[in-house]
Amino acid sequence: MASAQYTTKNTAVAEVNAPFHTSFDYDIAIVGGGIVGATLAAALKDTDLRVVVIEAQPHSVAIAKGQAYAIHLSSSRIYQGIGVWEAIAPQVEYFSQVHLSDGNCPSVVKFKPRDLGTSILGYVAEHRVLLKELLQFLETCEHVDWCCPAQVIATHYHAHGVEVQLAPSSCEAEEAHRPNAESLPQALNVRMLVAADGSRSQVRQQAGITTQGWDYWQSCLVATIAPEKFHNHIAYERFWPSGPFAILPIANRQCRIVWTAPHAQAQALLELEEDQFLDLLQQRYGSQMGKLSLVGRRFLFPAKWMHSTQYMGHRLALVGDAAHTCHPVGGQGLNLGIRDAAALAQVLHTAHQAGQDIGNVQVLRQYQQWRRRQNWLALGFTDILNRVFSNRWFLVVQGRRLGLRTLQWITPLRILALRFMAGLSGRLPNLGQPK
Fold this sequence. Notes:
The protein has 435 residues and is α+β, with helices and mostly antiparallel strands. The chain has helices at residues 35-43, 59-63, 73-82, 85-88, 127-138, 202-206, 263-271, 274-285, 333-353, 361-389, 394-409, 411-421, and strands spanning 6-7, 14-15, 23-24, 26-31, 51-54, 68-72, 93-95, 97-102, 108-111, 122-126, 144-147, 150-157, 162-168, 187-195, 211-227, 234-240, 243-250, 254-262, 292-308, 312-313, 316-318, 324-325.
């Protein structure tokens, strides 16, 4: 990926086929070129809607992030429908079982592919793989341009469009490659705006959309582990009073752990010497994969819950973390954003084909009605799951362990729970179906 400035494949200003006769630079501006924003741009590839992605970080910086994510079957199908999954699939690891347990309780719920009638249950993908392949895919999309690195400094909403004022990004990582005054436009006029700029979304705040939420008492420590024995494509989610502990299989026979604990405890784990950390990790991890070794650095991030009161405004839609964030238990976060992007792309495509104004409040309300309730259920699920399994009260402990045994014994209930966790329940975008 070349160092990006204001890259355009278009040589003329877009003329909008709409009941009004206004000229726009683009139909849609997506603020935020991370995985969710790039997914939305890619999902719009088969439309003639002209899209610009505005991203504050240089591509080289954005790709280099060290996260890894559980990728649900619903997300993989969306990427198949877009046409990018064939490039992603060889670089990710799959898991064919999920073992769910409560601390040292002997009852273990084992989710298996036969519960879904599939060959696998999901994937684990590194951030760099997903974003790199999406960016390379977008290079082939004639209707998608980039302003990068650039930041939105103001937005002005008008009856038929939005004026987006831009400035060079303050990112210091690529000072020498910043666009100059000649290469970066000072403003763009677009039919509608999409906020994909994260949980602290400036676009959302500028539009006056409020949020609800809280900070948890926990932080999540993330590390990559090289176990002595093969992971056998099994993902683990173990609940402890301090918080969930997840083990995800990743490429190169390694595993990614997400160790949730109260802030002070998590910080202490981060600061331990490597051998001391591995000793504690081995106790929490178990002996099923033999001796463990640490690969690379440990990372820490606080757990938060946030939900926007609206997913849309006048000529504005919110997707991904700009609309919601949740506890990492169950690996819901990024997958909800991917489904947001696919759903919004479908709504906009359908409206455009019908000759409707894509920024009209009635069009954008369709997206909000589709996604906000489904996301609320998923966000509520992660919150309840974390609170119930982090509770030491005797009756709660006995109740949740009975619930796990019930899941293991009653197949229809286990299937229902797995379909929900895998993103296969509720309304799904059509482009998520493999071609």
